[in-house]
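G., the chain you wanted modeled:
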Amino acid sequence: MINKKTEEKTNAKYDVKVNKARYIKQEEKEETISFDIQVNGITIYGMIYRAGVSAKGKDYELIAFPARKGADDNYYNHCWFPISNELMENIKEQIAKVVK
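Predicted structure as tokens:
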């Protein structure tokens, strides 16, 4: 029974729609975009997309979820869902269409 639950989680499908996006930082080596997304009918405000070149010269890109600083000085996400590589590409395409 445990394996069945694990299998259900990994096969979950997420219907995502980027509602709005705006540039926070747009430079040659770094790009930061704030966006709101709707995931399976639930809106998440204040997500962040970052792309750039690390100090070691490697390209990177990531999506950060909204978070708050806890009493222990660590940051904790308000919400979270797994983002596959395929879903990441879908979100990036949608951001490119709506970003201002």
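The chain is about 25% helix and 45% strand.

Shout if anything looks off.
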